Amino acid sequence: MTVSSRLSPPVPQTEAVNRRYRDLDLWDSATALETLWEGQMAAMAALRPALPVLAAAADAAAARLATGQGRLIYAGAGTSGRLAALDAAELPPTFDWPYARTHLVIAGGTGSLLRAAEGAEDNADAARAELETAGVSPDDVLIALAASGTTPFAIAAVETARAAGALTIGIANSRGAPLLAAADHAVLLETGAEAIAGSTRMRAGTAQKAVLTLLSTQIMIRLGRIHDGRMVEMRPTNAKLLARAQRMVADLTGCSAEDAAETLEAAQGRIKTAVLMILRAIDAPQAEALLSRHAGILRAALAEGREVPL
Questions:
Q1: Which ranges of 66-119 does DSSP label H, i.e. alpha helix?
Q2: Chunked in runs of 10, what are the mean pLDDT values of the chain (310 residues)?
């Protein structure tokens, strides 16, 4: 055995070859798809052991972001970076999370969302430079993903953010990954070897997409952007969303559809404001002040006494 082979790092689980699939290209489509589907189910099962650390990460992130200053920063390369971009893009329309409080750090830049830039994942300096330019601070939360957990770009992003005092969350699919060791909160998703060795858009990608959805949703719940199972921070920017917002106001207050529509208009489309206006018989500025006293959390605002100071 040579010195170089003795010092070689272990192969990440996501790069291993699963002999079960050695004849995959010879199987009929029905058999192959059923087997691939089983792999997707296994990917979802891999989330279960990660839920406790995911809960702690969500609580810590929400506490950091509750100050109203920090950003939710996503970092990754390749498939992981594209999944991060998807999660980031869904926060504003779903939870009215401000665009200014979301930042994406992806290897190869945004152009890599449609055109792969595989070599960019080794450029740790690019990650450091982008975060330094973005002015990462202790108010921020950074979520970095890498299936193998060895991607230099993602690791450098975590190290840079953590050194600046930001809260860091690392998500990887290989036990013992450097990315997990570098982060404040290490989310391990042990999805194992892929049906096509190294094709982490499959099991690993499915698990990463699901865990991002769970994490960001729970952060938004903790920040008061969900009430009674409804997206009460959603902005009615089209006909479908306007109808949904009106139904929410009517359901939450028991008012008529007409009153819901009228009040929502007076509230400039703000669902929580409209709900308080109806249930507390107050105007929009008073409702906004009431929400402000309770960090925007509708349940807490509703619990306050009916006498609202002018």
A1: 78-95
A2: 47 75 88 90 94 98 93 94 94 92 90 74 90 96 95 96 98 94 97 76 89 97 93 92 95 95 95 96 95 92 66
Is this model's pTM higher than 0.85 or not?
yes
β-strand pairing of 102-106 with 72-76: parallel
Identified catalytic residue from 38, 121, 233, 258: 121
Domain 239-303 sits in CATH at: 1.10.8.1080
Spatial contact of 279 and 302, defined as CB atoms under 8 Å apart? yes
Q: Identify the CATH homologous superfamily for domain 43-222.
A: Glucose-6-phosphate isomerase like protein; domain 1 (3.40.50.10490)
The answer to whether residue 118 is catalytic is no
155, 179 contact by CB (below 8 A): yes
Name the residue ranges covered by the structural domains of the chain. 43-222, 239-303
Rounded Cα distance between 274 and 140, Å, is 31
Which member of 15, 34, 38, 90 is catalytic? 90
121 is catalytic: yes
